[in-house]
Amino acid sequence: MKDLLNDLKQDLPAGLVVFLVALPLCLGIALASGAPLFSGVIAGIIGGIVVAIASGSPVSVSGPAAGLTVIVLNSIQQLGSYELFLLAVVIAGIMQVVLGYLKAGIIGHYFPSSVIKGMLAAIGLILVFKQIPHALGYDKDSEGDFVFVQVDGENTFSEILNALNFLQPGAIIIATLSLLILIAWDKPFFKRYTFFKFVPGALVVVALGVGLNEFFKVAFPVLALENDHLVKLPVASSVNEFIGQFTLPDFSGFSNYNVYIIAFTIAIVASLESLLSVEAADKLDPYKRNTPTNRELKAQGLGNIISGLIGGLPLTAVIVRSSANINSGAKTKKSAIIHGLFLLISVVGFASLLNKIPLACLAAVLLMVGYKLAKLSLFKSMYALGWEQFVPFVVTIVAILFSDLLKGIGIGMAVSIFFILRNNYKRAYYFMKEKRSEGETITIQLVEDVTFINKGVITLTLDKLPLNSNVIIDGTKSHNIDLDVLEIIHNFRETAVLRGIKLELKGIPAFKGVAGH
């Protein structure tokens, strides 16, 4: 009981902050996806409660993902009905559960650290760039539209330029004061007091935003923000109207080939995004815990099955919510569950009150989340690791900024693999010269794993060995020597005699493709 109370001291405030971050994102992603607004909230609730309980991750938070908006939008248009799309979501969830049992989660361990850190920094920068217009009172683009080329035809940077032509003084005042409060809230001086430790700064700025805007309506109407600049949570006037916001899948679509194509696409993309997000969340986790990835796929699959059955969007683990959770001091998965419960309670009983929240104050919260993900210190630390880490890191950031998450990750992975191959090419062996009684001896000590990638450098090295030299090729420490490399070595054995080279092979297996061996 004592441990539970200690956890709640950190998890309750964190869950509240994640709820405030998640609410506009759930609505914005639904809007950007061309789906009913309530579908985003459903996915947020299921991700917060069901997935969090089933998952083994202590800090990641799931919900509707910005990375799926284009897929969802195109899929609904292709299938012709939202109900058919929901069936695809259910089938995608089943596929994810199967992938979990097939242990496909192992893929999550093969993303290079430089790419994961680049993804975190890119998401941080995207949050900053995307929230600037909202902080200035320009709310034409939905909160969940994170791709470079937006749904409205603008891009990330042209949206900022447009915002400068439509400044809302009221929003700027609210956003500026909110940022100042959030910055002060993190200072060690304030953290000495219990109030500042337990009450999240995000809650204070939301209360400030609502209060200021209500004050503007009375005292300075010219500064007041209207509905277009406030949260837009669907409000049900009766129980029947609330129940009517849930949508059932169209099960007659089981014979529709396109449903399965879309389901497969959602399953693969959602699984990759989830694995990337939990890997990134583990890196941010101050306790350095590791998420069981196969269990994560099963949890995400269960979440998508339930979300699809009751009218929700497909969901994934999401790094924006997860980083907000970690930065707010979350200790266990209870914070994610609390955020889901807050979403549920809000749509049931407090929708009208929440619709008074200005997007400008929520923009300030997300700006702080973005800043913490893309701190200058991260760039400095990656640069200090050398070009082999820094280049994939920067390429990943740029690629994500100008495309979307998965394309950017793919480009970053390609660059990272190039450097891995380049290193393997260069590090096939150790080259040593030593004086012996019979003269100078050259030893080529092969590394543990010699692959076909190393063919080129080994061939060049053997070709450049001096005439009439003593050479030892030592493979005793190698666990694996590729057949292509063995062929080169044994071919060299045949030609070494012609060059007057006295050759000794240690631990080099025979190669049947060469005559006489």
TrEMBL record:
Top-rank taxon:
Bacteria
Reply yes or no: does the keyword Thylakoid apply.
no
Where the protein is mainly located, per its record? membrane
The regions listed as transmembrane in this protein's record are 12-31, 38-59, 79-102, 114-132, 166-185, 194-212, 257-281, 302-324, 336-369, 408-425
Q: Does the keyword Transmembrane helix apply?
A: yes
Q: Where in the cell is it found?
A: Membrane
**Pfam families reported in the protein's UniProt record:** Sulfate_transp
Q: List the keywords (alphabetical).
A: Membrane, Transmembrane, Transmembrane helix
User: How would you describe this protein's topology in the membrane?
Assistant: Multi-pass membrane protein
**Boundaries of each SLC26A/SulP transporter domain copy?**
8-386
PANTHER family the record matches: SULFATE TRANSPORTER (PTHR11814)
Name of the protein? SulP family inorganic anion transporter
Which lineage ranks, top first, belong to the organism behind this chain?
Bacteria, Pseudomonadati, Bacteroidota, Cytophagia, Cytophagales
